[in-house]
Write a structure and sequence with these properties.
- By secondary structure, this protein is α/β, with parallel strands linked by helices.
- 34% of the residues lie in helices and 32% in strands.
- The chain has a five-stranded mixed sheet with strand order 2-1-3-4-5, covered by helices on one side.
- Helix 2 packs across helix 3.
- It starts with a helix and ends in a 13-residue tail after the last helix.
């Protein structure tokens, strides 16, 4: 009984076009891609680059180590982080912060701009207590990784949407009858 209900639910979900985010095949320009992370100083691979590499690979792309080997280059630049104070306690110390991370992305193919540069940003609020400073610093670092992972997902969604518009067949012209 349970198995038949589960099978029926799966059949209904697949029939209506339901898909998990990130489970469908990539557009052709993203099948063989190089990720170009433009940063002034970089000691380790930023979480957004790691997340993009993982998401692309999971969906069937080949992420190559050199731009010459790729059909397409996904360029990330102007990554900016800032922490804003949201509220201050009676003692003049911050109680809440907002962490904002933004990144600029563009898609290039053969030296030409396939999708023009756009900027995305994500922000999250968190509380801060001086008595728990080590825990709050760890929380902020985890939040930073989470936001960059979310930015990676948003970049891929925006690129897929942009590529869908580029590859969509033009709509046929509709005849308009003259007004009488």
């Amino acid at each position: 009984m349970r198995l038949s209900l589960l099978s029926a639910a799966a059949l209904l979900l697949s029939a209506c076009g339901f898909r998990l985010i990130g489970s469908e095949a990539l557009s052709t320009p993203l099948k063989n891609v190089y990720i170009d992370m433009v940063m002034a100083y970089q000691a380790a691979e930023p979480p957004i680059e790691t997340a993009l590499r993982t998401k692309l690979t999971r969906r069937g792309a080949v992420v190559v180590p050199k731009a010459e080997q790729a059909d397409t280059t996904l360029r990330l630049s102007e990554m900016e982080e800032r922490r804003e104070t949201l509220s201050i306690g009676a003692d003049g110390k911050a109680l809440e912060y907002r962490l904002v991370i933004s990144v600029r992305y563009e898609l290039l193919q053969g030296g030409l701009v396939l999708l023009p540069a756009k900027t995305l940003s994500v922000s999250r609020d968190y509380s801060f207590q001086l008595s728990q400073i080590l825990q709050k610093e760890l929380e902020e670092e985890q939040l930073r990784v989470y936001i960059q992972n979310e930015l990676a997902e948003l970049v891929l969604l925006r690129i897929e949407a942009g590529l869908a518009v580029l590859t969509a067949p033009p709509e046929p012209a509709q005849l308009v009858s003259p007004a009488h």
